[in-house]
Write a structure and sequence with these properties.
Layout (H helix, E strand, L loop, with lengths): L1 H17 L48 E4 L2 E2 L6 E2 L3 E3 L6 E7 L14 E6 L5 E2 L4 E3 L9 E3 L5 E2 L4 E5 L19 E7 L5 E8 L7 E4 L5 E6 L7 E2 L23
Antiparallel strand pairs: 1-4, 2-3, 5-6, 5-14, 6-11, 7-10, 8-9, 8-12, 12-13, 14-15, 15-16
Length: about 260
């Protein structure tokens, strides 16, 4: 009897961990219905996935601002579009949020900065940032927004590092602070108010650095600090939600 109960308990636990049923097990599931749980790598864009393998939501390189052709791909974590094999428009500038830290920088040219945000121009023309705005407020409230002054530019392939404005010394740029613990969203908008890039992350992930690898179009992940130069992947995982959950490993991860 005890053996039978043990086997039944094991079967119930395994079924619970699977979190999915086949079409035969779920006769109410209709063809083409989105799965409840997204599985990155199954070639089907589900849940909050931006893409999955060859499933790019019908997009191609020419649909992405700044590109005219080439081969579009999906990043390994299904959370970003990979434009590294796209052909750039020689007349376009493409500015992206590229690296973030949520704690004070203690060495180098930025020593003493409370936190920092790096932008990169991955386009083939110089970017005029005059009137662009960056903020951690969805409504771009004036007291939480930095507006780029006239004449602000980034040359192709170059980086621009912004730091938190020090209320005492008045050194720095943006007036908002980046939490080292809580969820954050940072947005970059053009002069017309159109958000051209944004990133959602957990402040704790950026205590060293949270960046795109490769620069400008790669997946966001833990990095070593390389403000002002090409990003380098660091240790600590590759996702703001940590390593993928493995049901049955004795550790409650992800959405378990």
């Amino acid at each position: 009897m005890n053996t039978t109960r043990s086997i039944l308990a094991t079967l119930v636990f395994a079924a619970a961990c699977s979190g999915a049923t086949s079409g035969a097990e779920d006769p109410d599931k209709t063809a083409g219905e989105t799965n409840d749980f997204a599985v990155c790598g199954d070639e089907v864009r589900d849940g909050d996935e931006l893409c999955d393998g060859s499933d790019l939501a019908g997009q191609q390189c020419s649909d992405i601002p700044g590109f005219v052709g080439g081969t579009l791909a999906c990043a390994a974590d299904c959370a970003a579009i990979d434009t590294s094999q796209c052909e750039g428009d020689p007349t376009a500038a493409i500015v992206r949020i590229n690296e973030i830290t949520s704690t004070e920088i203690s060495d180098g040219e930025l020593a003493g900065a409370g936190d920092a945000v790096e932008l990169v121009n991955v386009g083939m023309a110089a970017a005029d940032l005059s009137g662009f705005r960056i903020s951690d407020d969805a409504m771009f409230a004036e007291e939480k927004t930095y507006t780029f002054p006239d004449g602000s530019t980034i040359a192709p392939g170059e980086f621009l590092v912004l730091t938190k404005l020090d209320d005492v010394t008045m050194v720095g740029n943006y007036p908002f602070g980046i939490s080292s613990v809580d969820p954050e969203t940072i947005q970059l908008a053009d002069p017309a108010g159109t958000v051209v890039d944004s990133v959602d992350f957990i402040g704790a992930d950026a205590t060293i650095s949270w960046c795109r690898v490769p620069d400008g179009n790669g997946s966001w992940q833990y990095c070593t600090r390389t403000f002002g130069s090409a990003n380098e992947a660091g240790e600590g995982g590759d996702s703001s939600t940590g390593p993928a959950a493995v049901c049955g490993d004795g550790v409650r991860d992800g959405g378990e």
